[in-house]
Amino acid sequence: MKSGATLLAVVLLPLLISPQLRAAQGTSSAPQQSETDWVHQLNGRLQQLNGEEKGKPDYDYRIGPQDLLDISIFEAPELNRSLRVSANGEISMPLVGGVNALGLTSKELENSLQDKLLRYMKDPHVSVLVTSIESHPISVIGEVNKPGVFQVREPKSLLEVLSLGQGLSPDAGDEVLVIRGAAVESDGAGFMQVDSPGKTQEMTEPESDAHPQPSSQTSGNTTYVKLEDLLASGDSRLNVPVYPGDVVEVTKAGIVYVVGGVKRPGGFVMKNSESLSVLQAIALAEGLTDTSAKSRARIIRADEKSGKRIEIPINLAKILSGKSPDEVLQPADIVFVPDSSAKGAFYKGMEAAVTTASGVAVWRF
Q1: pLDDT of residue 298 exceeding 70
Q2: Which contiguous run of DSSP H or E holds residue 78?
Q3: Which residues lie below 8 Å from residue 44, measured CB to CB, with a gap of 6+?
Q4: Which of 9, 74, 95, 134 could be cross-linked to 66 through a Cys-Cys bond (beta carbons 3.0 to 4.6 Å apart)?
Q5: CATH classification of 68-132, choosing from 2.60.40.10, 3.30.430.20, 3.40.50.1820, 3.30.1950.10?
Q6: How large a percentage of the chain has pLDDT more than 90?
Q7: Considering the domain 53-60+136-252, what is its CATH architecture?
Q8: Looking at the whole model, is its pTM more than 0.85?
Q9: CATH class (in words) of the domain with range 20-37+254-364
């Protein structure tokens, strides 16, 4: 008799679940992954796509201020020098004096020096080697494994720049910002010509109005690109060019924590462009346990100004029945659902929720 009642309960239980909760659960029907696995897959895809960037024709590097040059004169080795380009783009050598090097390739500077040395020697041969680049920085900041400033010989694709930062960190969000800066001018070597930060004159390959870039948006001097689309779609238009002077920033993901009387407590990553409600967060946590106290749940939120924690009471039973609005969560919110079997330890449990939230598994959806 008891086994028959148990079987009946198993059959009827799904029918008794609140319609609102079933609808919220529908938003998370896809299998969940831990954050580490998700980022690992993205970084693997990044390495794969970055390998496809190889084989492109190299640009002739154009010398800039503070670059270090190794200059050799075969007919007069005593004149060999290691020289740093001045702020105004000049170098100074014996016999020839000041020579403009700004914007020249190594070959062009070699020809210029040879022409000037003709008055002192017959058929001079000059070699110019750029040994240290100091004038073509790209800054990579935010949620990458190795943020920093990287000197580049040529414009890079966004994927190549992310690889310079050694891939995405576990806290990476789903959006990357390319902030245009004061790029080095060029007369056809593929660089973007810029007068000042934020003022772009022209690109060597302007976009076509008939083919706008999907999943990317430009506002002022900043381009926003969705990382998932960049790494998963293979659409070359999303792999935007990055020029010397630009800044690439990978945004940090917002995380909402659900702890207490839920079936799968943990942290859930919020996409930058989407909001997350209490019911959606509960659904991502695979619903409430049988002993959860729905009417005594809390949202624990840190006040932005003071940094102090504030508690927002929520009645999940009323939200599920449509009698109370479904609260929209903010990044770093903690949804704490107490257990009805531990009424006397409610606030103690809430303190434990704050302590353990940072240690629970983090999931992406």
Answers
A1: yes
A2: none
A3: none
A4: 134
A5: 3.30.1950.10
A6: 34
A7: Roll (3.10)
A8: no
A9: alpha beta
